[in-house]
Amino acid sequence: xxRFVYVLIRNLHRAWMIPQAGYYAAxxxxxxxxxxxxxxxxxxxxxxxxxxISTSVYGRENLPSQGGYVMFPNHQGxxxxxxxxxxxxxxxxxxxDDARSHMPLVSQFIDLVKGKRIKLHDIRQAAKIIQExxxxxxxxxxxxxxxxxxxxxxxxxxxxxxxxxxxxxxMKSKVPIVPVALVDSWKVYDLNSLRHVHTQVxxxxxxYYEDYKGMKSVEVCDHVYRRVCKAVxxxxxxxxxxxxxx
Length: 246
Prior knowledge:
By secondary structure, this protein is of the alpha/beta class. The protein has a single domain (2-243), classed as Glycerol-3-phosphate (1)-acyltransferase (3-Layer(aba) Sandwich), CATH 3.40.1130. The protein contains 11 helices and 7 strands. This is 1-acyl-sn-glycerol-3-phosphate acyltransferase.
């Protein structure tokens, strides 16, 4: 929390970027997806510089070269989606807990990339969001979905269990499933310190439709979970080459 407050204070003179982001988000026909994504990245890089955050990204070569796909990372905190987008070369979006998505700056950040707000305790609305993601990935969009749902504040890289239902968004549209491992992302806002923080993002080899077409969502979930857990352990041991091959 200390770092979050520090970033806000240090960037008060850039507060104009918030209504600017809202302006771009509301005019998606005028401003392209690439333009809006780059504006998001501009804000992310500025935040990282102010907050003394660095992120190493591994496995970009594993990302599918064409079409839509869904990335499924472990969830550690508020920085997770920002770290993934920082390392992702093409425009992508995110599915976020509705309750956490309406704060100033967070709201504009989500709107710029046409993110989805999901109500975790509203089964009907959640199913509708999954259908929307499925339809849009079939048309070439790329999404981040946190299969653990929420996250718990803790000191460590423990990977919370994944929910099988979240994988149906990709399975219905038969698009690639990209496991993503985050290491030390929790340190950004959970450490009560302003010292430099280094995080890691690993894009693992994707599961294509041919790989999972005979599997149930529970089986896909278990498979991705085990690979992410292994990659996190290897990342903690500074073994990136092995981690991206998980």
